[in-house]
Backbone:
């Protein structure tokens, strides 16, 4: 009876791991009810990892947090493979451990045989000597090859998506600063051609936002991969874009910024879906990110560069408050979950933007 129970456990463990690998690597969409045995360990480990990082200096903390994405990916792979090896060993033991002629071997030998079969080939001096043992060995070896093939195809796709994300985030530096600020983005983009220039610029980000939503829903581990610079990251870029789009839609003359509306819609869609994917409850920022004094200052600076709003201050403030209420709670919750601070709305011109500085000055 005990061998039957161990065999059922082993079979269930192997099937669960294979299904989880399929969902994590091959199924490019969110699944509400999927096995999360190993991925739950990755999620729970983030809490103590983040706790330790908070006790380090800023530069060291960001480095430690940046390690977690690649480390977690390797941790998942190791746990998946180890669990499958254990499952196949349980199946061999349940079938009588027929790995030598004439007598059974210990469970330790079963585990060694299972690991060696999955990683390379059956060890010398051991071989399956029953029909059941041979079937388990063939499936063991086949699943090992499949996992290797999947990982070989997955990692380049993952790092290509990361590279595309970061290349576009870097482009925001000259326009919005480091960290990015919606106020600076609006002011710098409207200096020559006013609202139409800002509308065209925001339109160009629609594709990036849509691609980020697709890749981060399909490969959630990407959210933990941090940028090369401490003062920029994908979430602050997303927040600055949402802020800029919300302000543009609220303040520009009617009918002049339709593209900004579309970019705002897809960006808001992205942060809501990502919040759902990461199981974080929306929570507004504790401190108002754009008090009325800062909004008034932004409007004054726009007036100085010759850009006039399409409504009065009270109307703009009312519109902006409504738009911020439908995205700020979600992006704030994501920032708290991933330990990524949200950028300021109105930041002063800074000589420390990444494009202005080097490691020597």
Residues:
């Amino acid at each position: 009876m005990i061998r039957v129970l161990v065999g059922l456990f082993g079979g269930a463990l192997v099937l669960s791991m294979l299904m989880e690998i399929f969902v994590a690597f091959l199924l490019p969409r969110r699944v509400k009810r999927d096995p999360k045995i190993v991925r739950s360990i990755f999620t729970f480990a983030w809490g103590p990892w983040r706790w330790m990082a908070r006790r380090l200096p800023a530069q060291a903390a960001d480095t430690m947090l940046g390690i977690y994405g690649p480390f977690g990916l390797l941790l998942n792979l190791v746990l998946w493979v180890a669990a499958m090896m254990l499952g196949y060993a349980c199946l061999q033991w349940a079938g009588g451990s027929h790995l030598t002629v004439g007598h059974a071997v210990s469970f330790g030998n079963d585990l060694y045989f299972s690991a060696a079969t999955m990683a390379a080939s059956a060890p010398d001096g051991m071989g399956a000597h029953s029909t059941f043992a041979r079937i388990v060995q063939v499936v063991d070896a086949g699943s090992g090859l499949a996992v290797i093939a999947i990982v070989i195809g997955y990692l380049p796709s993952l790092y290509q998506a990361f590279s595309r994300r970061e290349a576009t985030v870097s482009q925001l530096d000259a326009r919005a600063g480091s960290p990015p600020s919606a106020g600076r983005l609006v002011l710098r983009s409207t200096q020559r051609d006013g609202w139409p220039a800002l509308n065209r610029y925001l339109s160009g980000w629609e594709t990036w936002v849509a691609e980020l939503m697709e890749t981060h829903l399909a490969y959630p581990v990407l959210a933990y991969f941090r940028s090369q610079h401490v003062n920029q990251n994908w979430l602050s870029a997303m927040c600055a874009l949402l802020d800029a789009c919300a302000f543009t839609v609220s303040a520009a003359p009617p009918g002049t910024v339709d593209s900004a509306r579309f970019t705002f819609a897809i960006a808001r869609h992205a942060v809501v879906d990502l919040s759902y994917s990461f199981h974080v409850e929306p929570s507004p920022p504790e401190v108002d990110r754009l008090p009325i004094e800062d909004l008034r200052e932004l409007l004054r600076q726009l007036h100085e560069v010759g850009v006039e709003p399409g409504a009065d201050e009270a109307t703009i403030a009312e519109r902006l408050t409504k738009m911020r209420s439908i995205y700020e709670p979600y992006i704030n919750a994501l920032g708290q979950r991933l330990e990524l601070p949200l950028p300021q709305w109105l930041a002063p011109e800074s000589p420390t933007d990444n494009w202005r500085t080097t490691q020597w000055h």
